[in-house]
Specification:
- By secondary structure, the protein is mainly alpha-helical.
- The protein folds into 3 domains: 82 residues, no CATH class; 300 residues, Rossmann fold; 78 residues, Tetratricopeptide repeat domain (Serine Threonine Protein Phosphatase 5, Tetratricopeptide repeat).
- It is 57% helix and 5% strand.
- The chain has a 5-stranded parallel β-sheet, sandwiched between helices. Strands 4-6 form a two-stranded parallel sheet.
- α14 runs antiparallel to α15.
- The longest helix is centred in the first third of the chain and has 37 residues.
- It is globular.
- This is SGNH hydrolase-type esterase domain-containing protein.
């Protein structure tokens, strides 16, 4: 009897076309993600420009080769694939790419964790049912399902156990400080903790506050050996910085602390600025150590993507409730108190530097607007444009009048407080005190506080005073150097990080308050200090070092310009200035002392 053997048929060409289109979309998306991460800005722009033409060409070629879809499901699949690619391109053009990328990562995290937690439960039920039926293959898929559930259980146990170990290793609230032995070797050791400013960014390792302090001490006491243990790390808040003290093996004689700038950028999962990326089920997810660990890291990155960019960017939202900010300030006070108690118990002298920043020429990144009416917000933005135009025309009184009108309605609007301060500064005379007040309020109400708020400065002063620590009040010290008393870009590269001269001034001030036994009676003690030029030469600050620092500063300013809700023209202009200086330094067209942004040739900083 003849039987007909059915030969397997190849998948329809149109289905292969859908699959190839999907692979093309996935590959393109991966290329875009990699390009946005690693390419320079011009190359990113080129990639964005070519994407629509690449997508159109791929659609034409795939359709020509495999034919048009014939079923509704195939048309739907192709539509969704191309819509996803178009949405990706729109997000790049409108500046919301980072927001939606972070949203996708957060969504994926929650889906993955839900699956990993649910699969073991499903496996238990499936295993129990298999035992009840008495045979493994009561359904064809049961063995595979049990295997998947078992693998998920192993992964779950491994992930959660590792997350618990990592969490326990983290320093809670500035406690668990090390007990250090005394090194009886005659070396005077200085330890420094803090963030990028204390590290010496962007000049490190050649230059910085701590480096200058040690150079001055070595100059004054040439017979004494000094050692700097700079534990500062860019981006560290106080809790993280204090945790790095565990790297010490012996007790330092002096601990230099510069803290306050980075307190906002940690523990961001509790900050209201991320409520757009908060999820209703997070209270349940927080029972998972893996979720807490990964989500905290995502929140640290989400701050740069939490508010999509768009035409109405000037009027922002509140950083967090006042009660939450108060809890964070209290936590900072507790951590700082624990550090000072530890130092006092070990007989370590502490020098606390009150952090300073550019108040008068660095605009707020984001502003708070209480009025939610779109038309009113648009009117406020129109007024902002008008104020900017008046200031460009040097019509300072008219600009101030408009600012005051907005501030009567929105007294917490940081951008208008800053612009009012600019106008008052230019008007001078009786307006000078108001300018200082406006600038301080603008900094303290910035909803993206990369600069230390006054409340944190006061906490530092209070705790240092309570423990009789030496205090370097950096804001007051810098104000005294200039006749107008404004701390501005004459002292800072990017609003936060001090320039060469400012590092020298602050480092010398630190050296002045560090006690050394028998310093006054020692005949080898040098009564004079290093000059700035001598210190630069001694620390080998060359044009190449400056060029490298300025290249880094360009990246920082570009980053701030991306975050800035209002406009990035001023920051972009300053970034271009540093790029030009770096080119000139690398080409040998300029020496260190000739760089205008460092104000090295002006003894009083004016």
């Amino acid at each position: 009897m003849n039987s007909t053997v059915r030969q397997p048929t190849a998948p329809p060409r149109r289905r292969r076309g859908v699959k190839i289109t999907l692979w093309f979309a996935v590959t393109t998306a991966l290329v875009v993600v990699a390009g946005r991460a690693y390419l320079s800005d011009p190359r990113k722009a080129d990639l964005t420009a070519v994407l629509p033409f690449l997508q159109l060409a791929a659609a034409v070629v795939i359709t020509w080769r495999y034919g048009r879809p014939e079923s509704r499901s195939e048309w739907t699949a192709l539509f969704l694939i191309h819509a996803a690619l178009i949405a990706l391109q729109i997000s790049i053009v409108t500046g919301t790419y980072r927001y939606w990328r972070m949203f996708a990562i957060q969504l994926s995290l929650r889906i993955a964790l839900a699956a990993i937690w649910l699969l073991p439960i499903v496996g238990i039920v499936l295993f129990a049912e298999t035992l009840r039926r008495g045979r493994l293959r009561w359904k064809a898929w049961v063995p595979t399902g049990l295997g998947i559930c078992f693998a998920a259980t192993v992964i779950l146990i491994g992930l959660e156990s590792a997350a618990v170990v990592i969490e326990r290793q983290r320093l809670p609230d500035g406690m668990n400080l090390p007990t250090l032995p005394i090194a009886d070797d005659g070396i005077f050791r200085l330890a420094a903790v803090g963030g990028s400013t204390m590290r010496g960014f962007p000049y490190a390792p050649e230059w910085g506050i701590a480096q200058v302090a040690v150079s001055q001490l070595q100059h004054r006491r040439p017979e004494q050996s000094f050692e700097l243990l700079n534990l500062a790390k860019p981006g560290c808040n106080l809790e993280t910085a204090v945790g790095l003290l565990k790297q010490l093996t012996v007790r330092p004689d002096v601990l230099i602390v510069y803290s306050g700038h980075n307190e906002f950028f940690h523990n961001l999962e509790e900050i209201g600025v991320n409520r757009r990326t908060a999820w209703k089920l997070d209270a349940w997810y927080n029972h998972s150590p893996t979720f807490r660990l990964v989500n905290n890291e995502l929140m640290n990155r989400a701050v740069s993507a939490g508010v999509p960019r768009g035409p109405a960017r000037l009027c922002g939202e509140e950083l967090a409730t006042e009660s939450l900010l108060q809890r964070r300030r209290q936590r900072y006070r507790n951590q700082l108190t624990a550090l000072f108690k530890w130092a006092k118990a070990l007989d370590i002298e502490v020098v606390f530097c009150v952090p300073a920043s550019d108040e008068a020429t660095f605009a707020p990144i984001r502003s708070l607007c209480h009025n939610a009416d779109p038309q009113r917000r648009q009117a406020i933005e129109d007024t902002w444009q008008e104020v900017r135009t008046l200031q460009q025309q040097h019509a300072w009184q008219g600009a101030l009048t408009l600012c005051k009108a907005i501030l009567r309605e929105e007294p917490d609007f940081a951008e208008f407080l800053y612009l009012a301060g600019r106008s008052c500064r230019q008007l001078g005379g009786d307006h000078t005190a108001a300018a200082h007040r406006y600038f301080q309020q603008a900094r303290d109400l910035d909803q993206f506080p990369i600069r230390t708020r006054s409340s944190y400065c006061e906490i530092g002063r209070d705790v240092a005073t309570d423990y009789d620590a030496a205090i370097i009040d950096c804001p007051q010290l810098l104000q005294a150097l200039v006749a107008d008393g404004f701390v501005d870009q004459r002292f800072f590269l990017d609003g936060v990080h001090p320039n060469l001269k400012t590092c020298f001034v602050l480092g010398t001030a630190v050296a002045d308050v560090i006690p050394i036994a028998n310093e006054q009676t020692n005949p080898t003690t040098v009564k004079t200090s290093l000059t700035l030029q001598d210190a630069l030469h001694q620390q080998n600050v060359t044009p190449d070092v400056l060029a490298r620092a300025y290249r880094t500063t360009v990246g920082v300013l570009d980053r701030y310009a991306f975050f800035r809700a209002a406009t990035d023209r001023d920051l972009k202009r300053r970034a271009e200035e540093f790029g030009t200086l770096a080119d000139q330094l690398e080409a040998g067209q300029m020496t260190v002392k000739d760089v205008p942004v460092e104000f090295l040739s002006e003894p009083d900083g004016d």
